[in-house]
Amino acid sequence: MNKVEEFNEYRSRMNEKILASDNKVIKRLFNLDTNTYAEGALDTKTKELLGLVASMVLRCDDCVKYHLGKCHELGFNGEQMFEAFAVANLVGGTIVIPHLRRAVEYWEELEQTSQ
């Protein structure tokens, strides 16, 4: 199983367990997250880039993987990703570099899965 499949399987499995708890606050939080990235005044592509950059600056590797997967699904290319990575590193500083490394590695894996 590659990194992309492993991450997606784990995320799905754990989300099912979490939502099965039927906690109203958690369900509302998940719903809010879903609706935040829906088409609105900003298109979904812009929102995913915002989510990716924020996730890199906040140093959340799971969030970075999730947004990279969405960006890949939305048709972003490597050049566009590296521009977003540059913004994240400028805003977040050098502490973001380890997350940049993992983001590049994960993006390469996403690209390989689509070939």
Largest sheet descriptor: none
Could you report the average pLDDT, rounded to the nearest whole number?
96
Share of helical residues: over 70%
Structural class: mainly alpha
**Overall tally of domains:** 1
Distance between the termini: 16 Å
CATH class: Mainly Alpha
Stated plainly, the CATH topology is called AhpD-like
GO molecular function, one term: peroxiredoxin activity
InterPro entries: AhpD-like, AhpD_core, CMD-like
Protein name: Carboxymuconolactone decarboxylase-like domain-containing protein
Organism: Fulvivirga imtechensis AK7
Describe this structure in words.
InterPro entries: AhpD-like (IPR029032), AhpD_core (IPR004675), CMD-like (IPR003779). It comes from Fulvivirga imtechensis AK7. Residues 27-105 form the Carboxymuconolactone decarboxylase-like domain. This protein has 115 residues and is mostly helical. The protein has a single domain, classed as AhpD-like. It contains 6 helices and no strands. It has helices at residues 3-20, 24-36, 44-58, 61-73, 78-92, 97-113. α3 (44-58) packs across α5 (78-92) and α4 runs parallel beside α6. The longest helix has 18 residues, at 3-20. The two termini are 16 Å apart. The model has no long low-confidence stretch (mean pLDDT 96).
